[in-house]
């Protein structure tokens, strides 16, 4: 029997949302996001400091005893949603969701793990998992070998690696924390479709790191980290899609052609109503995923299914919301100056992140016992 | 104000006074009505106690747990859901006393004479005429359509045009119509499924005493809005768990018949399964919102979602079944009291679900409503508002 997640926001979550939204409205306006992308800076360091320093948001998933806030996936999902709404450029989904979720899933809390976890929770260290952004939970990981204590391998398209302090590397001999500036580490920024989530190739030529866990423990922990990432990605997609819908409705109320508001044309009203309906479905799907990741109610398969459902549903809807926003904004939507392209690029990038709808559809088929031919 | 403890005490007193095991159904229901436990938010003397509406479910649960009979609410849904709240809101004391008790007890079934062949989405354009005679009796002539339960009903709620010179919303009056009047003719309306859930109702010089008018002359549209707001929007999906709706027979066939599977069908199956699960979660979220008294706008969209899902899922089921999908279970003209999606074959599900995007508000009208009321977009231009009904194009 399926678990019944709580699908309403708590008062704490509402307060958190208001605080984050207010901060992002002033500190991550669209022109600033675009300026950051053009500057070549890997992320908005000032915004990151505010989010993680005074607000402590990097530690939401981390228990208080480990230096975090002792909140959970539901609260982190609220932050991710608001960051999506602002298409903000900070390594939150990677550094404050996937990384701590991976470390917390390790069966043994060694001194090295605890130390890294505390730094990650404080936001003073940005640590990202060195796997391609497209990796789905449970997918095979890139091949990194160990030779005389040094790590060797190449990992393509790692999100937020360019600004990271530490790379979490799953090698054949275990999970390592490798300082990004260590000898033998080359991080090469790539020109990404999504201007607001930088990608980089990571090359390891005999780099040395701190062993965090043996290989047998690394794979399940990485899988758990990616599952959290994929689940909360749906909240990011919700934020993106809601922004696109809201801005498009606003535009169609303001913009007049043929002596009437564009939003008075029934062809456009129906498109927006249908889009609202589809976007409204992301919220319960994303909340269910975050809730079941937090509670574990019904066992791990329930959370896995909720995440897969959320991804299969949210990915195409978020892309369509951005595509509709661009089309319905008309010419202004095609300009570099208007922010809608930032949302389209993020939404399209998100649709292949953590496996994309196709890979998660296979998970749904497996978990719901609807086998392929 | 009657509170939960008081209601519990009254419920237990009713059960002690009329033990369900030794009381006839009719006696029990009558005693329940007279104890004010029928619909607790109704006034005293009319089956209620003036209590909060939210307290009803505890009474129902306690009575059901004690094995008490209910009034078969699905059979008399139109009376309970539409006629009763309208009579309560607009009826005279005599009308309330005359009609509400037999309605709730199920002794008198009600139907709704609103839609017409020429007035579907544009209901206010209706053309059934009612003319008041010198004897204080109205004479009604016209045709109504898509009337559930008309062949079983003793009474109908009816809207008719009483002043064609007024703009369409202003010249309508609301009546309670005796279905046994010799001028009422009910004919089954056969649907594409082969059966007839609904009726056409022909009204020829039907006589309705002015005492059976509900609300003022010419104010029938406002009265009808009360009825329509109380119309329980059937969301088409169950409130059950995962895979409890139209997706269930499709998923079962997929699991049991591996020889039917293809990759193209699999893609569509998984997508629809996910859409059905998201619609279920949307409904669950709405239920959780209602439980804390904070309904969101998502309810406006659920009927749209379920109409599309039911149609696409049943369409896929017909294709998946291949040879068997070419067959139909039974074209016999029947008169079912309730729609039974799961008791019939996939062809029936495919055909019947076509009505889901038409009945109770077409998907096109519902999209307008979402656009205007949820998104705040401009309303459709109206060229009919200030024109006399008789001068409208038709």
TrEMBL record, chain A:
GO molecular function: acyl-CoA dehydrogenase activity; flavin adenine dinucleotide binding
Ranges of residues in domain Acyl-CoA dehydrogenase/oxidase N-terminal: 10-96
InterPro entries associated with the record: Acyl-CoA_Oxase/DH_mid-dom_sf (IPR046373), AcylCo_DH-like_C (IPR036250), AcylCo_DH/oxidase_C (IPR009075), AcylCoA_DH/ox_N (IPR013786), AcylCoA_DH/ox_N_sf (IPR037069), AcylCoA_DH/oxidase_NM_dom_sf (IPR009100)
Keyword entries, A-Z: FAD, Flavoprotein, Oxidoreductase
Domain Acyl-CoA dehydrogenase/oxidase C-terminal positions: 224-358
SUPFAM superfamilies the record matches: Acyl-CoA dehydrogenase C-terminal domain-like, Acyl-CoA dehydrogenase NM domain-like
Cofactor (UniProt): FAD
Family that this chain belongs to: Belongs to the acyl-CoA dehydrogenase family.
Matching PANTHER family: ACYL-COA DEHYDROGENASE (PTHR43884), ACYL-COA DEHYDROGENASE FADE28 (PTHR43884:SF20)
Descriptive protein name: Acyl-CoA dehydrogenase
Automatic annotation (TrEMBL), chain B:
Record domain Acyl-CoA dehydrogenase/oxidase C-terminal: where: 218-375
Boundaries of every Acyl-CoA dehydrogenase/oxidase N-terminal domain copy: 27-107
Cofactor: FAD
Keyword annotations of the record: FAD, Flavoprotein, Oxidoreductase
Flavoprotein recorded as keyword: yes
Alphabetized GO MF terms: flavin adenine dinucleotide binding; oxidoreductase activity, acting on the CH-CH group of donors
Domain Acyl-CoA oxidase/dehydrogenase middle: 111-206
Transcription regulation is among the record's keywords: no
Record-stated family: Belongs to the acyl-CoA dehydrogenase family.
Protein name stated in the entry: Acyl-CoA dehydrogenase
Upper taxonomic lineage: Bacteria, Bacillati, Actinomycetota, Actinomycetes, Kitasatosporales
């Amino acid at each position: 029997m399926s678990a019944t997640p709580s699908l309403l926001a708590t008062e704490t979550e509402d307060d958190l949302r208001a605080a984050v939204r207010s901060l992002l409205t002033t500190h991550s306006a669209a022109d600033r996001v675009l300026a950051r992308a053009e500057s070549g800076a890997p992320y908005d360091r000032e915004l990151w400091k505010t989010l993680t320093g005074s607000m402590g948001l990097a530690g939401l998933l981390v228990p208080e005893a480990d230096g975090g806030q002792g909140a959970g996936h539901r609260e982190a999902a609220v932050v991710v949603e608001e960051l999506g709404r602002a298409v903000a450029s900070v390594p939150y989904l990677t550094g404050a969701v996937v990384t701590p979720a991976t470390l917390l899933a390790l069966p043994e809390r060694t001194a090295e793990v605890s130390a890294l976890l505390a730094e990650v929770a404080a936001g003073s260290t940005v640590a990202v998992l060195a796997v391609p952004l497209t990796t789905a939970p449970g997918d095979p990981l890139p091949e990194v070998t160990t030779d005389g204590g040094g790590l060797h391998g190449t990992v393509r398209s790692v999100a937020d690696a360019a600004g990271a302090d530490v790379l979490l590397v799953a090698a054949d001999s275990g999970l390592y924390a490798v300082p990004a500036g260590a000898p033998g580490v080359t991080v090469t920024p790539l020109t990404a479709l999504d201007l607001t989530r930088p990608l980089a190739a990571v090359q390891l030529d005999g780099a040395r790191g701190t062993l965090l866990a043996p290989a047998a423990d690394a794979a399940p922990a990485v899988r758990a980290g990616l599952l959290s990432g994929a689940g909360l990605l749906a909240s990011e997609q919700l934020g993106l899609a809601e922004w696109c819908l809201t801005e498009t409705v606003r535009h169609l109320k303001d913009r007049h052609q043929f002596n009437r508001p564009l939003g008075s044309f029934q062809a456009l009203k129906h498109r927006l109503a249908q889009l609202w309906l589809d976007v409204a479905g992301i919220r319960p799907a994303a909340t269910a995923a975050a809730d079941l990741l937090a509670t574990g109610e019904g066992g791990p398969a329930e959370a896995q299914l909720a995440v897969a459902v959320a991804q299969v549903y949210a990915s195409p809807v978020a892309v369509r919301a951005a595509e509709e926003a661009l089309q319905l904004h008309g010419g202004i939507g095609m300009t570099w100056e208007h922010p809608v392209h930032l949302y389209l690029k993020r939404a399209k990038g998100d649709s292949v992140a953590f496996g994309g709808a196709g890979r998660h559809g296979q998970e749904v088929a497996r978990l719901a016992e609807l086998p392929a031919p | 104000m009657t509170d939960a403890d008081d209601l519990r005490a009254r419920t237990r007193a009713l059960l002690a006074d009329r033990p369900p095991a030794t009381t006839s159904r009719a006696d029990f229901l009558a005693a329940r009505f007279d104890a004010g436990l029928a619909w607790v938010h109704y006034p005293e003397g009319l089956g209620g106690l003036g209590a909060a509406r939210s307290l009803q479910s505890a009474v129902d649960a306690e009575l059901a747990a004690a094995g008490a009979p209910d009034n078969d609410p699905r059979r008399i849904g139109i009376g309970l859901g539409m006629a009763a709240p309208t009579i309560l809101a607009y009826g005279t004391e005599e009308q309330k006393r005359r009609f509400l008790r037999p309605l709730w007890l199920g002794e008198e079934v009600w139907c709704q004479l609103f839609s017409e062949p020429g007035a579907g989405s544009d209901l206010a354009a209706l053309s059934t005429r009612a003319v008041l005679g010198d004897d204080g009796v109205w004479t009604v002539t016209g045709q109504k359509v898509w009337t559930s339960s008309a062949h079983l009903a003793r009474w109908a709620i009816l809207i008719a045009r009483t002043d064609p010179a007024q703009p369409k919303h202003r010249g309508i009056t609301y009546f309670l119509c005796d279905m046994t009047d010799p001028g009422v003719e009910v004919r089954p309306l056969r649907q594409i499924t082969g059966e007839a859930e609904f009726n056409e109702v022909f009204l020829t010089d039907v006589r309705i005493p002015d005492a059976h008018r509900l609300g003022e002359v010419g104010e029938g549209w406002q009265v009808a809005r009360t009825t329509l707001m109380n119309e329980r929007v059937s969301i088409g999906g169950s409130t059950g768990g995962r895979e409890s709706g139209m997706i269930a027979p499709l998923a079962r066939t997929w699991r049991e018949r591996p020889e039917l599977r293809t990759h193209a069908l699999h893609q569509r199956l998984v997508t629809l399964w996910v859409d059905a699960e998201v619609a279920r979660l949307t409904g669950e979220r709405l239920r959780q919102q209602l439980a804390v008294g904070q309904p969101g706008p998502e309810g406006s969209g659920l009927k749209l979602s379920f109409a599309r899902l039911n149609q696409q899922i049943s369409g896929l089921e017909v294709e998946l079944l291949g040879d068997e999908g070419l067959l139909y279970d039974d074209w016999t003209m029947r008169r079912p009291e309730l729609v039974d999606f799961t008791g019939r074959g996939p062809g029936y599900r495919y055909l019947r679900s076509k009505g889901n995007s038409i009945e109770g508000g077409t998907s096109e009208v519902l999209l307008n409503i979402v656009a205007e009321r949820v998104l705040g977009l401009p309303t459709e231009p109206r060229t009919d508002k200030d024109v006399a009904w008789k001068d409208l194009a038709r």
